[in-house]
Amino acid sequence: MRTVTALFDDYDDASNAVSELERAGIPSSDISIVASNADRRHGEDSKAAEGAGTGAGIGAIVGGAGGLLTGLGMMAIPGVGPVVAAGWLAATAVGAAGGAVAGGATGGLIGAMTRSGVSEEDANVYAEGVRRGGTLVTARVEDDFVPEAEAILRRSNWVDPFERRSAYGQEGWTRFDETSRPYAAEDVEQERNRYRRSAL
Q1: Which of 4, 71, 166, 191 lies most in the core, judged by the most C-beta atoms within 10 Å?
Q2: 30: helix, coil or strand?
Q3: PANTHER family of this UniProt entry (predicted)?
């Protein structure tokens, strides 16, 4: 088994990627999604919002279209803020948060990604991308299915991690910092608009 991972600026693109992975035969239990909820698109869980500085477990269920997306729950990740999440990566990140900061290189979201085979460099970009309003999709797939799974993610408007790392670096960013202030809804909208404009 190998892990394929992609960041999306738009939740709908990520949701489409999850649905397409499921249609291709990847079990929901092998797919994860972690999406920023700074704009409260998925509702609001005051406990998750309060826990944004310390990490909070998965909370209230917020419905989805089907498959993995029906099991979205709310949680908070230090430095990222409130998110909705489902799947094995979210469960691993929450479990690791008990012994380490949820953004730290050895625990939480970044630790869960690196333990599953994502480079630490990319994991930092992905965590920062979620902090800035993005959505992360991760799937565990058989080795021979990796090219097809990656093609599904690319067709769904994934973010190239090298290009995004370069864009963040031009602002002086070097790595995800769990002590950073989570983005507010207006910050997320500004960030999304910046990449919408650059794509035109």
Answers
A1: 4
A2: helix
A3: MEMBRANE PROTEIN, MEMBRANE PROTEIN-RELATED
How far, in whole angstroms, is CA 58 from its chain's centroid? 14
In eight-state DSSP terms, residue 158 is P
CB-CB neighbours of 175 under 10 Å: 16
Alpha-carbon distance 118 to 138, whole Å? 10
User: What pLDDT shows up at residue 124?
Assistant: 95
Distance CA 144, CA 166 (A): 31
Q: Hey, what amino acid is at 178?
A: E
Quickly count: other Cβ atoms within 10 Å of residue 10's Cβ. Answer: 17
The rounded distance, in Å, linking the Cα atoms of 37 and 150 is 25
- Which parts of the chain sit beneath pLDDT 70? 44-71, 92-108, 197-200
Contact present, 38 and 188 (Cβ < 8 Å) = yes
Q: Is 39 helix (H, G, I), strand (E, B) or coil?
A: coil
Q: At what angle do helices 161-169 and 120-131 cross, to 10 degrees?
A: 70
Residue type, 40: R
